[in-house]
Structure formats: C-alpha cells, structure tokens
Amino acid sequence: MSRIYSLLATLVVVLSFSAHADIQPNNPYPKVTLVTSLGNITVELDRTRAPLTVANFLRYVDKGVYAGTIFHRIVPGFVVQGGGYDKDFQLGAEFDPIPNESGNGLKNEYGTIAMARESAPHTATRQFYFNINDNPRLDPSDSRWGYAVFGHIIKGQDVLEKLAAVESMPFDEVTGWQDVPKNPPLLEQVIVEPAP
C-alpha cells in the first residue's frame, strides 16, 4: 500500500511541475547563461535525464529569484555552491522540495551543475552547485542516494575557475559554516538562451 501512495505522490509532483515547465517545452536541452560578477557561464540543461530538476530550476529562473544571490560556499577542489542566499546571507523563498533524480546516469564530474540538498535525499529546492573536480562520492550507489546532476557548462569554464579560486573562510561559530567566500561572488541574473 505504501508503494501505491509513493507512486501517487510522485505523479502529483510530476503533474505540478509539468504545469510550470513552460520555458521552451519542446527543447530537450535548454541553455541558460549565469551572469556573475566574475563573468558569464553558459549551461546546457538536460531534460531527457533530469526533467523534474530542470523544470524546478527553470521555475526559479522564470521567477527571477536567482538575481542578486551569491555563491556562498566555495570548497577548493570540490564545489562552488549558490542560488540560495542574498548578499546579507538571507535565504530566499523556496518552492516545495523535489524528488531526487540522482539515478539518471549523469555523473558529478568537472563542469557539471547539480542540485544541493540537505542530508535527506528529497530535499533539494533552489540551491545548486558546480563541480570543480570529478566528485564520484556525490553520485548514487547501492547504499545511498546521490546528488542530482542536471546539466553541464558549455561556455565559461574560465569563469568557473575564477569562482573556484575565490578565498573562503569559516563564517561564524553559530552556523558552523566552513568555506564561505571572504568576498562572495554575485549571481546577477540567469538568462534563458533562445532555442535553436
């Protein structure tokens, strides 16, 4: 019985996201450009492998909520994470968490974009990260969920390297955050590129 409820819950989520996935609905690989304070990064998203994750990301893009956010976590040799906080470290509004699509065959390899989440598997909302190394420990295995990759950089790898080189430090003793940039790079806006 619980499996039936799980399938019904997934169907409801799929239907609700399909209502919001109206950005280039017939383009399986929409492209977006992230305009950052260090330059532009163009990413090709993969609807064929991560339809719910791409729909979720484009929903936030459509609402313009990434404009003015920061890259708040930069771990050398690991990831550059952003999309959640403004320059005052205030967390932005979130839609409901989405199902984890980490088993889609896409790997956490250098230059890919993936969803950040809490320790529970189905908790991704608006935060994302770029892999600045091959990170197989973020991929799923027989014993654990992974982190869902949903696209890769096609232009602007040099900008990713600039982001990765920003100096990070512990934030404060209250949050316990490590690897917070001393001067967080800004995500000014995300632009959907014209369909081919």
Automatic annotation (TrEMBL):
- Key words of the record: Isomerase, Rotamase, Signal
Q: Does the keyword Ribonucleoprotein apply?
A: no
Gene3D superfamilies tied to this protein: Cyclophilin-like (2.40.100.10)
Q: What SUPFAM superfamilies does the record point to?
A: Cyclophilin-like
Identify the stretch annotated as signal peptide in this record.
Answer: 1-21
Q: Name one GO molecular function term.
A: peptidyl-prolyl cis-trans isomerase activity
One annotated GO biological process: protein folding
Domain named PPIase cyclophilin-type is located at: 36-192
The keyword Isomerase is annotated on this UniProt entry: yes
Catalytic activity, EC: 5.2.1.8
What this protein catalyses is:
[protein]-peptidylproline (omega=180) = [protein]-peptidylproline (omega=0)
Instruction: Outline what the protein does.
Output: PPIases accelerate the folding of proteins. It catalyzes the cis-trans isomerization of proline imidic peptide bonds in oligopeptides.
By sequence similarity, the record places it as follows:
Belongs to the cyclophilin-type PPIase family.
Q: What is this protein called?
A: Peptidyl-prolyl cis-trans isomerase
